[in-house]
Amino acid sequence: MTGIVRVQPSLQSIKSLPGNHRFMSSQKFDRLQINDKSRLGSGNMITPSIFENVQVGDGIDEAVDSFRNDLDLVNEDSPYVGNLVSTEGRSSTEDEEVEAIASSLPSSSKSHADNRWGDTSSYASKKKVQSWFQLPHGDWELVKILSSSASESVISLSEGKVLKVKTDSLVQANPEILDGVDDLMQLSYLNEPTVLYNLQYRYNQNMIYTKAGPVLIAINPFKKVHLYGNNYIEAYKRKSIESPHVYAITDIALREMTRDEVNQSIIISGESGAGKTETAKIAMQYLAALGGGSGIEYEILKTNPILEAFGNAKTSRNDNSSRFGKLIEIHFSETGKISGAKIQTFLLEKSRVVQCAEGERSYHIFYQLCAGAPRILKEKLNLRAANEYKYLRQSSCFSIAGVDDTEQFRVVMDALDIVHICKEDQESVFAMLAAVLWLGNTSFSVIDNENHVEVVEDESLTTVAKLLGCSTGQLNLALSTRKMRVGNDNIVQKLTLSQATDTRDALAKSIYACLFDWLVEQINKSLAVGKRRTGRSISILDIYGFESFDRNSFEQFCINYANERLQQHFNRHLFKLEQEEYVQDGIDWARVDFEDNQDCLNLFEKKPLGLLSLLDEESKFPNATDLTFANKLKQHLHSNSCFRGDRGKSFTVNHYAGEVTYDTTGFLEKNRDLMHLDSIQLLSQCSCPLPQVFASNMLTQSEKSVTGPLFKAGGAESQKLSVATKFKGQLFQLMQRLESTTPHFIRCIKPNSLQSPGVYEQGLVLQQLRCCGVLEVVRISRSGFPTRMSHQKFSRRYGFLLLESAASQDPLSVSVAILQQFNVLPEMYQVGYTKLFFRTGQIGVLEDTRNRTLHGVLCVQSCFRGHRARVYSKKLRNSILTLQSYIIGEKVRKEYAILVRRHRAAVSVQKWVKCKRTMNNYKQLRGASIVIQSVIRGWLVRRCSSDVGFLRTGFKGTQPEEVLVKASFLAELQRRVLKSEAALREKEEENDILGQRLQQYERRWFEYELKMKSMEEVWQKQMRSLQSSLSIARKSLAIDGSSRDSDASVNDTQDPGSFDAVPGMMESNGAMRPMSAGVSLIGRLAEEFEQRSQVFGDDAKFLVEVKSGQTEASLNPDRELRRLKQMFEAWKKDYGVRLRETKVILTKLAEDEGGAAVIDRAKKKWWGRRNSTRV
């Protein structure tokens, strides 16, 4: 970075802590003391009298105060004053061995501004083991002190080289335990080398974020680091990670906006290449992740590729440098969701469109369009390669390493679709870009000796006219002539080559600037909040940082002026307003001096003799030149302490970040930024819609007609505001908006000028730290009260944490009671007239306690509400079940009644169908029987009739005896027929009897089956029920047997001589024998059951007595009990099988008994009829 004016680093140590500030607990101090002891050499001894009469738990400050007179220490604020090394025992020979070569090294002198940073006392009293020493090339190195005196010290460098230097040139170093702390406020000794070392220590470990009080320092790693993504977003949302990060700053802004209902702002600053744009995108990603849900957050994120393509370019310092400033105001709904956004841009670098330095590029969109446009679009716009356009080939750089312009163009196309820019408008945008490129290729030819020119009618002219929608003649006149009004006449003046070139370039710059503004306007329409606006918003400011090059022009002049204004806002927020608020609220506060840049701002803004006023004044004169402007500045501002006039066209301004020399070449032209009326009329007459919109906007922004020398010279009839005045107005509006918000600052640091990862240039980093005032911030924040809250708000927010009710007390009493209850040390806060002021970290403890309490309350409420909901749900469920049971029961009863009616109807139908079928069968059988009978009877009658006729015909010739024989034969036949009929009737009766008895046997069989099933079930459940069932069965069988015996005895009393009685008696005796066999079988089963039950019961009882110890036996009762159980299961299975077999036998016996009885009755009936016939 040779172009930056650097201030040579000098010794800037800072006092560590205020006298009433506790930096850390005594336990942590003890650990540090032990650590420092381990770092001392063997020849060094810790002074033993330091901590006499001091308790281990005593504070550091009390220990220092009690022995201040003995030690004669000036820097009593350090928490490490106890770690002093006594060198009284060191021999003088050690000093003689050291070479006195310190005279060859330059010593650092302190300026007046440095005196307030550090100690002016001698370093001899401190005698630190390690310190910082500035090398000749300006870098700081950590050295080891071998010996020390009041004026000189002997140090050892890292490579082993030993030097003798002045003691005042050494700067205190922090103990190793503080290496790499994430907040610079934790450093014991705050000075430039310790800050540089701490940042480098974290940078080497890819920890690119460090806090400096309320400011976040972000060092560009120039590589991808694994610190982003959804996992990190969720972690910072849950507060599970507390390390410094852009996510943490954004989360704080979001929470404060929701809690305090105050708009927030995140101000991101830094020089080109420090990573401001990426940091802004990271902050937007976090807001989109936490406030997303409506889809608008995706559109907001997609604005970044569009703005980067149209507003970023490759410079010598940065491959993706923002050449404009932007403020993104993100609005939130009442529920904390993103409802819309608005983008405001500042000072687009229009000159980059027509001018490009070697090694740099114009805006990305030109190269992306030439490389990634589809073939149809290229043919329509007549696009060529980037190296064929004059505006782009001024530099030989057409690509960026690692960047694919074709892919980036596709990303831009997708982003344009997402922000709802239609295809027609997109084609118009690309047509304007192509027109700008072809305008650069437009050439002029000299037509006379006065160097007047006209446009060469070639492909460039026709293409531009086609893309703009105008004729080539109109374009030729607008570029080569200028209309002037003299009196009442209009005069057309031909332009020279330089004037025509400037007109062409002005038209190209105006078209591109208007196109950029139009795109931003369309994006704002897409992201418009509308009726969803709630007043809550978070603004992210991504603006160019302080710039200083070898040659600084008008752009650097405006950029540095903006940074001066932002620095004052930074100072007002962190220094001025804070200290003024301390004084107004009447707290005990010692004023701290800080650098104020109000003098530099007055140099820019003072009227009528300020830089901007003189620039506008000089721009109004047509004959003014850059040299006259420089001389006017030197004439009027030579007495200003922030201004210095140089030779020629240069002047120097002493900015807050250092001196910058500006070259006034081009200042007046760039400030005027004239767009002649002829060019505006050309755009308004174009057939394409966008040029017409551009012309309308330019006319709207113009001021009233300018009278004076410019008008007389034939200038534009309508002149707009100068660039400097317009930019000043935008800057004041920006400051007003930022003043109404709570700011959060992110300072981006560029670690090296090579844009290489892992390279850390101390000089470059130190200059940027000075520019952003990091040391000042830490110094004042650490000694002040950065957190403040009104009495009412504090009591309202934390009053519920009090153990006793304080409803009747005033807010101040409640606030004091809260602080006393939580044992907040008095030096950690101050009570003002209207507010409470807290040191860093104190309000966080109260917030943690409040969050834990609220979480506990919410847990109790959730449990109670859950219990109440479950009770209500259970009650409601029971009611629903009861209602459902009634409804389902009624429904089932109705369905059952319908089924019963259907069943009865089905049974009735079946009965009538079966009756009809049986009747038909009976009629068929009866008819067939009648037919058979009629046939047989007819045959018999005919046969008998034929015999009778034969006998009658032969009666005369035969004997009477033969006739009698024939008559007896006929009677015998009749008797047999009657007998057959009687036998048939008896058979039918027997059939009916057998059917009835069969039904009885089926009922008895069904009863037997039920009994057997019940016996099996009872057998499984209770063994005794089986015995009772068997005894009942045995008794019933015995009664049946006795009845049969009685029947047998009755049969014995009948006529023994009757032949038919013998078979009946024999059949009865045959039935009795199997029945008695069945009874005996059941008896044996019952006896076996009783015996087995007795045996198993005795064995089980014996095993129980053995197990309980009542009986002694040499056996294992558990094993024997399992064995007995197995035997019982086997017997039970076998017994069940035999029981089923007995059931089958009984069934067969029942069937046999029934058949014999039917036969017996049939025979008795038959013999009874026979005896009656005999009688």
Task: Give the topology, please.
Elements (H helix, E strand, L loop, with lengths): L25 H14 L5 E2 L13 H7 L1 H4 L13 E2 L6 H4 L15 H4 L14 E5 L5 E9 L3 E5 L5 E5 L4 E2 L19 H13 L4 E4 L2 E5 L10 H8 L8 H15 L3 E6 L6 H16 L4 H16 E2 L7 E2 L2 E8 L5 E9 L4 H4 L9 H9 L2 H7 L23 H14 L4 H19 L2 E3 L6 E3 L3 H10 L3 H9 E6 L2 E6 L2 H30 L9 E7 L11 H32 L12 H8 L5 H9 L6 H12 L5 E3 L4 E6 L2 E6 L3 H6 L4 H8 L4 H13 L7 H4 L10 H17 L2 E8 L12 H11 L1 H10 L3 E4 H8 L12 H11 L7 E3 L3 E4 L3 H112 L6 H62 L1 H30 L8 H48 L8 H58 L1
Parallel strand pairs: 9-23, 10-19, 10-23
Antiparallel strand pairs: 1-2, 3-4, 3-7, 4-5, 5-6, 8-9, 11-12, 13-14, 13-19, 15-16, 17-18, 20-21, 21-22, 24-26, 25-26
Helix pairs in contact: 8-9, 9-10, 10-12, 10-14, 10-18, 12-14, 15-16, 15-18, 16-17, 18-25, 19-20, 19-27, 21-22, 24-25, 30-31, 32-33, 33-34, 33-36, 34-35, 35-36
Keywords: Actin-binding, ATP-binding, Calmodulin-binding, Coiled coil, Motor protein, Myosin, Nucleotide-binding, Repeat
Protein name: Myosin-1
Family: Belongs to the TRAFAC class myosin-kinesin ATPase superfamily. Myosin family. Plant myosin class VIII subfamily.
